[in-house]
Design goal:
Blueprint (H helix, E strand, L loop, with lengths): L1 E7 L2 E10 L6 E7 L24 H13 L8 E7 L14 H8 L7 E6 L8 E3 L5 H13 L5 E5 L8 H5 L4 E5 L18 H17 L2
Parallel strand pairs: 3-4, 3-5, 5-8, 6-7
Antiparallel strand pairs: 1-2, 2-4
Helix pairs in contact: 1-5, 3-5
The structure holds zinc ion.
The site of zinc ion has 4 residues, from loops.
Length: 218
Amino acid sequence: MSEQTFPFNGIEARNIYGVAGPEDGNWILLGAHYDTRPIADRDTLFPEQPVPGANDGASGVAVLLELSRILIPSTLDAHIWLTFFDVEDSGGIDENAWAYGSLKFTESLDRYPDAVVIVDMVGDADLNIFFEANSDPELSAVIWSIAQGQGFSGFIPELGRSILDDHTAFLRLGIPAIDIIDFDYPYWHTTEDTLDKVSAESLEQVGRTIQIWLMETD
Ligand SMILES: [Zn+2]
């Protein structure tokens, strides 16, 4: 496991990543943000409270941690980084940028991954993941078609909206990147983004799809 630290608004922020698989394989970077928004500014009652982040933060982390548990490094043809980004979700507070951790991460790269898959807000019990409009269309099509093949109804092969997230900095460098995100979540940036709103079955749809894709990628 490795870390990258950098200053952010008077704190030391920290990206964390672990690496597996042969170095000469295709370099696949899987990413999720692990910070949660410091203020629930969409909450009508408690806008000064922090967001618990069961979905907006922890769901993507849960998928990556489970992949780290079930992937067998000796069977991998691809070189895989599991990357946990800090300070994705402080955008618009004190004029902070969104997705600052992944931006700092891309600035530290001296070569570029072949593909990047970000998972964010993938735990909603009512899972509806559309194509994110800025994401690489070819990679999106591959991932969604695997999900369809598994009968995972949470993946909907139709164009959704565009979202600024941890895939953005990679896309700006010309790296094929996608964001797997269900942005239709009523508890987004409220104090009600709690464990009872997310389901293990939703996490499984996303994690299993990525697992199959990784096992098919060399
Ligand atoms: Zn957020």
